[in-house]
Amino acid sequence: MSGRPPADIEFKAGRAALKDKTVTSDARKGYLKFGITPERLICVQWRPRDSSAYEDEYYFAPGDLKFVKVPACKTGRMYYLYFSDSNQREFFWSQEPNQANDANIEKAIKAIETYVPDQDL
Questions:
Q1: Confidence label for 1 from pLDDT (cuts 50, 70 and 90)
Q2: How many separate domains does the chain show?
Q3: Residue 8 has what pLDDT?
Q4: C-alpha to C-alpha distances, 25 to 13, 75, 80, 112, nearest whole angstrom
Q5: Is residue 16 part of a domain?
């Protein structure tokens, strides 16, 4: 896919941390945003809902982002960002009240994840 970048997607999501093979959720409510920068990088940002300032920002070259659903999660609403160059993982859990929207959110993220910018822009 090339041409125009896909639209940004922001949804309600919390942070989580992996320790000793257990993922523990941070109780804070937040937003997770995926988008394409003017420099054609993929940007993933997390902020608490009571702040407009992003606490975490991650940048990926096109093709380097992996946003993976955690298969062992009982609710199926836990995800992680995978950094292929370091095997680092950052965990997030969906806080969207309507689980029926999860497929649409995942589809929008997949469009950003697989976006390939035109080379001549």
A1: very low
A2: 1
A3: 95
A4: 10, 13, 12, 25
A5: yes
Q: Please report whether residue 67 resides in a domain.
A: yes
Q: Which domain holds residue 90?
A: 9-113
- For residue 43, give the amino acid letter: C
CA–CA distance, 32 with 48 (Å, rounded to integer)? 9
pLDDT band per the 50, 70, 90 thresholds, residue 119:
low
pTM across the whole model: 0.90
